[in-house]
Amino acid sequence: MDKFSPVALVTGAARGIGQAIAVELLGAGYGLMLADIDEERGAATARELAAPERVHFRATDVADPRAVQSLIDATIDVFGRLDLLVNNAGLMIRKSPEELSVEEWQRVLAVNLTGPFLCACAAAPHLRKRRGSIINIASTRALMSEAHTEAYSASKGGLVALTHALALSLGPEIRVNCLSPGWIDVSAGAEALSAADHAQHPAGRVGTPEDIARAVRFLADPANRFITGQNLIIDGGMTRKMVYVE
Predict the structure, then answer these.
(1) Beta carbons within 8 Å of 165's beta carbon, 6+ residues apart
(2) Any idea which residues carry the catalytic annotation?
């Protein structure tokens, strides 16, 4: 019998949404491999979870194919299995399209879109053995935009499309779904939100990383195997709100 059952790999786990996902899955009994390009903060997050036998960290650039394969290999070496991949690592560079360099454009797409593809491909043989699941963290910017977010919006739109393509290619053994968060407060209290910030949401508040983490747990549950290829929008209703100046 496996020492840890089930096991999840979470990328971009050093802080914010990724860290909240790690906390949620640890509470659900998962063994965890955490990955992030920020080695110092990622290692600190793993220590803060205070479960050294169940939580491991590996510094990884998800845009590097060899680093991704090494990450998957390390996960199997440590835990012997993989049941869930959460592709959360992401990068935003906010510049006008005239100022954004080709190198910056390519880096954002490499991390936000190519990275999840590489992780999914490398993890698939192991996930297939467990009839596992992949959850991609996209964004409502796949559906609507702010100015000067071209690379980020394009990458997240691509990730939504990649999700349903992978669901067809990897199913029925592996389910693939996507979450698109709206405004999620990851400031940990560093930036005070105004009453107006909350009130503009039909749900009455800005989102929290825990809102996304609970959705990850729901989609990962094997009892929900009929859900695949979907993009679950978690934005307090903002993408359903018409906004016109009166």
Answers:
(1) none
(2) 152
For the chain, domain boundaries: 7-240
- Residue in this structure with the two tokens 């559906």, named with its chain if needed: 143
Q: How many CA atoms lie within 13 A of 25 on its CB side?
A: 35
- Say how far apart CA 21 and CA 13 lie, in whole Å: 8
Q: For residue 167, give every residue at least 6 positions away whose Cβ sits within 8 Å of its Cβ, in sequence order, or none.
A: 175, 176, 177, 228, 229
CATH superfamily of domain region 7-240: NAD(P)-binding Rossmann-like Domain (3.40.50.720)
Q: pTM for this structure?
A: 0.95
Strand (E) or helix (H) holding 198 = helix 195-199
Q: Yes or no: say if 54 and 4 are a contact pair by the CB < 8 Å rule.
A: yes
pLDDT in tens, 144-163: 999 999 999 999 999 999 99
